[in-house]
Amino acid sequence: MKKLFFLVALGVILSQNGYSQFKENPVLNLENEDEPLLNWGYFLGFNRYDFKFDYKDFTDDILVDQSIGFNVGLIGELRLNRFLDLRFEPGLLYNSRILNFPGFTGEDDIKRNTVREVKSTYINFPLLLKVSTKRFGNWKPFIIGGGSASLNLGSNESSIDDNSAGTFRMTKWVYNYELGFGIDFYLEYFKFTPSIRGVFAITDELVRDLEPNSPWTGNLDAMRTRGIFINFTFE
Questions:
Q1: Is the model more confident about 217 or about 110?
Q2: Which among 77, 112, 143, 206 is least surrounded, fewest beta carbons within 10 Å?
Q3: 198-227: pLDDT as tens digits
């Protein structure tokens, strides 16, 4: 994730230098786009989720098979000044992760107990501060960050079954902080914004099994989501 952030940041810097060298005075699109107090839009994108595990005792790691999910949502933006905007971006996020637990032996035991599929459908409620530079022709870089609360519709928190019955359980609500950056492109009829953002849970999401020495949750001190979003915004 850190390498991906670094590569995208480097690309932004290089593209900014190239832009200033080859097109110093472009025809400005949507000159008054950032003037209104309130602004609206929507976003589409992709996500990739992982877990960070904290263990009580040293053990083999739980392996996570990641997949690509999708994001869709709305944007409400309050203009604070020329460089600061407060944004509310409620969205629907879907992803699936497969957990591979160590310690099981025997073909039947491994087949029945090692793998747990975690399907998550989050309704995300982020409140973010967007900090922009001045506008360079028809584009404007920014960084963005803030906090969010996510409701996991597939958490299984209220299920009476646990891993002994094949059900992996998580908390319904998880609280995160989010950090990212992107570029606003001012096109002829709308503003288009690609961005990349990291999402980091600050609360423990694990609902433990009833058995304290459970081979699935007994050695886990905490489990927190880590994710990366690539969004495309239209305003």
A1: 217
A2: 112
A3: 999 999 999 999 999 999 999 999 999 999
Helices (H), 59-211: 107-113
pTM (2 d.p.):
0.82
- Using CB atoms within 10 A of its CB, is residue 10 exposed (0-12), middle (13-18) or buried (19+)? exposed
Show the DSSP H helices in 84-214 as ranges: 107-113
CA distance 187 to 164: 55
Domains of the chain: 2-234 (2.40.160.20)
DSSP string across 24-50: SSPPPSSTTTT-SSEEEEEEEEEEEEE
Is residue 184 within 8 A of residue 77, CB to CB? The reply is: no
How far, in Å, CA of 154 to CA of 120, rounded?
5
